[in-house]
Amino acid sequence: MEEKTYTWRDLINYGLLGSVVTLYFGMIGMLELFDERILITPFLSLGDVLLFSGVIGIVFFAVNKFASSLNEAFKVGAVVGAVSAIFPIVLSFIATSELIAEQFVIRDVFVSVTDRLVEIYNFGLEPIVGSLVLIVAFAIVGVLTALFIKTDPKIERPLLMGIVLTLGIGLFSENVTQILGNLPAGIGRSISRLLFTNKALTIVSALIIFLLTAGITYWRMRRPTTGESRGFNFSFEDISNRGLNRAQMIQLAIVAVVLLLLPWMVGSFLSQVLFNVGLFILMGLGLNIVVGYAGLLDLGYVAFFAFGAYTMGILTTATSLNPGLGLNFWTALPFAILIAVMFGIILGVPVLNMRGDYLAIVTLGFGEIIRILALSDWLAPVMGGAQGVLKIAKPVFFGVEMGSPETMYYMVLAGSLLVGFVAIRLRDSRLGRQWMAMREDEDVAEAMGINLVQTKLMAFAIGAAFSGLAGAIFSARVNNIFPHSFNLLISINALSLIIVGGIGSIPGVIIGALVLVGLPELLREFSEYRLLMYGILLIVMMLVRPEGFIPAEIYKRELRADEETETEIEAQVTSS
Amino acid sequence: MLTRTLARLSWVDLILRVFQIIAAIVIVIGIVNVFRSNTYTSNQWATLVFAGLAQGSIYALIALGYTLVYGILLMINFAHGEVYMAGAFSTVFLAGYFSNTGFLQSSPILAIIIMIIFAAAVSTAIALLLERIAYRPLRNAPRLIPLITAIGASFTLQYTFRGLYGAEFKSYPQVPALSGTVNVIGFDVPLVQLVVFFAAVGLMIALYLYVERTKSGKAMRAVSEDKDVARLMGIDIDRVIVTTFALGGALAGAAGVFNGLFRPQGVFFFMGFFPGIKAFTAAVLGGIGNIPGAMIGGLMLGLIESLGPNSIVEGLGIPSANQLKDAIAFSVLVLILIYRPQGIFGERLAEKKA
Amino acid sequence: MSTILETKSVTKRFGGLVAVNALDLVIEENSISAVIGPNGAGKTTFFNCITGFYTPEEGGIVFNEKEIDGLRTDVVTRMGIARTYQNIRLFPAMTAIENVLVGQHPHLHTSWISAVTRSAGFKDEEESALEEARRLLRFVGLKGMGDQLARNLPYGAQRRLEIARALASQPALLLLDEPTAGMNPNETGEMIRFVQHLRDELGITILLIEHDMRVVMTISEQITVLDYGTKIAEGGPKDIQSNPKVIEAYLGRGAAGGIENGSN
């Protein structure tokens, strides 16, 4: 191993950085809010996790950078951890000092510096004792982190899995309870009573979950892996292009059954969450075509969502306020998509000659103009102005009126499947190659005989169609739509989720929507920090992993470039 | 020759041309209608013009930040509106303190200068942090990537300041010395508007002289011409970039104080978003990368925004014209980028290294 | 032999600079011709005029008896002119075979709807397109490399892939912009044989820009020399080698054999 050199100064710098992070979480109020959510009674709150996360993170970097041996790692961890306590301690003293308070009340400026925050930093002790405890605690956490980094991955992974799952169940205790509540014969309710007190895990249940998870992970890691025996080994590509063998069929069937039963397993609240996730998957898949395949950075994507929603609304509403047409959902749906496509093309034509940043800004401008117009008195006779469009029809499916989260879930499920299917098939076709060639190099793409105008407009139109479909379903679900529902955040949301998931990657869209739409819905109480997390996630993602969680798998795209692979595949198909 | 021109004209160009003509006709009709109907007195127009100039000078100061950074790095610092917000939002507390202690009343000029320096310092610090964390590591990445981090940085800054200072609006104190009106060529103009306008113009001239006359200004221009050659000439590129961000930040901070002085609506964490986009519009209007262009573009946008609703929109018979004020700014942005992306003064920089 | 490409006093200006000045050129079908000249002589600009990337201010370009000046690049390509670039411009994040498939674009016709329904016609066309792409990869010696990303291929392979991509559009005229730039003598020799092979086997007319005089003199039947956008000489290799104007243009500025960069 190469010798890593460092000085005390390096360690102190890293410690100060950790200290800034710890201070930051406190000063913006996250610590205090997160502290209200207890994960394991009585001693561990989400706030504690956040308090230590800065130290853990910074020690992680420091140890990886400086420490080659275990002893050194301990030293680095302890020093960096202890130094990380400095700024919070300074803050506690400023906030509690009466001398300073006479001149200047820090809370008048920094609203989050409350007594409670000082209490968190001091563990509820006297300032001096509390400060010492904080230093020691941070140093211990630093050492533990160092130890953790330097342990054998065979032990590290089970531990990590155990910790993550235990904390996860503690965090989502309410949702776990809801799901368990749907189990038959009250079994679930007894289990959740055993697991949780006051929405948090008890020490005993936490220990059990931790040991179980760690144990199972350890056991599974010891078994020699055969690769194919575990997990799902079919992909969207297979379904679209090749057909499946029997094992894959069975797996697909299981997935299908789970997807179909999901809303009834998780209850109404979680169904609504699933609905929202699905809606963003729909939009994400559409935007993925525009941004991921065709490389056109569109920040006004919400416009087409709005066109879909408003068209659906205006065509189906039948109140005296809005002179709607009173059509039913299914009749209005094609129009909603068509209008969205139309505007996709209309707004696409002016931006045909734009690239990159300018395209992003102009599309953002379009989105805002449309929102402002929808809000204006001028178009109020058509679009309802600030009052929005009310009483939008619910879809009726074979006599069953849909509208509840559970039933509308099926609508987005069907929509997402259809859209995903279309997206994959287009990607693996001439049009998909046209888009990608254009993304890579517009001039050369044109020199290959590709008509850029047509290709771009196709991307805008298809993207708009998907977004319009999402908008139509959205308006049927919420029944009343208002202009403020169609703000820039929707575009940013959709863009963020495809970036975080992996630009151009369809599984990435799903993961991105689950993480960026699903998680925040479950963590509603922290919603004021939702966009902060988005922002940080976007920056970190671009710095560390610009290709996203699940990068688009270029290699796996089954093009069968060589005869050998082709015959292999044929052999597989015939043998199964 | 004619047939060849026709053959080259694609239907896209045709549609764009038709759009352009329609837009021009609509604008002319709107203006003609308003002036024919004599809805407003010349005094009312003058009020709008001066308010527009003051607002425009604030846009111009922010726009300079966009233009400076674009000139050097060819990237749009999407989070620049937040840099402006940071200075304006932080300084509201200092202003309140000065007002409570009577300092603002007893020596207003000194107090405002201190406020400007403080705001500029905060904004500069944020701009430098932004450059260091979000942009520097990505300097050689594809263009899409820094744009996305900029969006991320924008949200991070908004909600960080919301966490720090709270979500409520906070108002700058009234400055007694700046209330009242002055008679300018026969019209009563609020003093604060004039002060803001001239102070902003003063800062812009200072910046212009800095870039044109000083050594580090020359280095900036050299880097914006050709980074590689500038490096060979011994110019420290990183330092030039840092200077650029610092200058842009300082001007944005000053703009934040000016905004606080003359708009009673107060400051809050989301205040930077729309001015940010509008200032970007101003920068594009004048030709992005072009310093005098940003100044003129800012003033023009201020005027368009101030006069537009009452002249064009109302002239078209659209009710509640002021609701569409923001839409006008965005329409200007869209139209400029479609028809004259190089701006009024600029050369076409956008494609230079695209 | 008939004429495949004829330019009549083509002129392209950039502001005050005349990049190509009243250039007349006649390319015979099934020939190998070269355009040479010192740095900045306007060679690449001339290529860009032929392919429609630039529209010349004056003059006309006739390809296969059709006027093509002023047409869009994609239309010109579909009429049968393909090109490669001086600084290789592949689609870097696409695989080699995808690059070739994109090149086949002008000859694929199924609509996006049949792509969604995976109609029989679509499947047939994709299958034969893949077959053709594999054949082209084999032809340029990239067998077995089809699944690699273009950007991961070695330099020489990238050059060959670029040619395969150009061939995929089944051009009648192939414009090669410095096909041997950055190659060692071995690779250069291979490229010479390959270019001759293209003409002899596939009957494609070749027009190339080249700096390596050995290459130019070995394979070209007709050479046109540009200096400051103006044609200063034209003829077979022997005539050019002894032409005093050419020698002056090169030696006068000491640019012979230098590697041109950024002449557009």
Distance between the termini of chain B: 32 Å
Q: Which chain pair shows the most residues in contact?
A: A-B, 54 and 56 residues
Biggest sheet details of chain C: 6 strands, mixed
Percentage of β-strand residues of chain C:
15-25%
- What general outline of chain C do the C-alpha atoms trace? globular
Detail the poorly predicted runs of chain B: 348-354
Oligomer: heterotrimer
Helix content of chain B: over 70%
Give me the strand/helix succession of chain B: HHHHHHHEEHHHHHHH
The helix tally of chain B amounts to 14
Listing every helix as H and every strand as E from the N terminus to the C terminus, the arrangement of chain C reads: EEEHEEHEHHHHEHEHEEHH
Number of structurally distinct domains of chain B: 1
CATH homology-level superfamily of the largest domain in chain C: P-loop containing nucleotide triphosphate hydrolases
Output the strand order for the largest sheet of chain C: 6-7-8-3-9-10
Structural notes for this entry:
The complex is a heterotrimer of chains A (576), B (354) and C (264). By secondary structure, chain A is an all-alpha fold. Chain A is built from 27 helices and six strands. Helix content of chain A is 71%, strand content 2%. The C terminus of chain A is likely disordered. Chain B has 354 residues and is mainly α. Chain B has a single domain, classed as Orthogonal Bundle (ABC transporter involved in vitamin B12 uptake, BtuC), CATH 1.10.3470. In chain B, a hairpin with a 2-residue loop joins strand 1 and strand 2. The longest helix of chain B has 32 residues. The radius of gyration of chain B is 21 Å and the shape is globular. In chain B, 51% of the residues are buried. Chain C contains ten helices and ten strands. Helix content of chain C is 39%, strand content 23%. By secondary structure, chain C is an alpha/beta fold. In chain C, the strands form two sheets. Chain C has a six-stranded mixed beta sheet, with helices on both faces. A four-stranded antiparallel beta sheet of chain C has the order 2-1-4-5, covered by helices on one side. In chain C, helix 3 crosses helix 5 and helix 5 crosses helix 6. The relative contact order of chain C is 0.19. Classes of the chains: A mainly alpha (576), B mainly alpha (354), C alpha/beta (264).
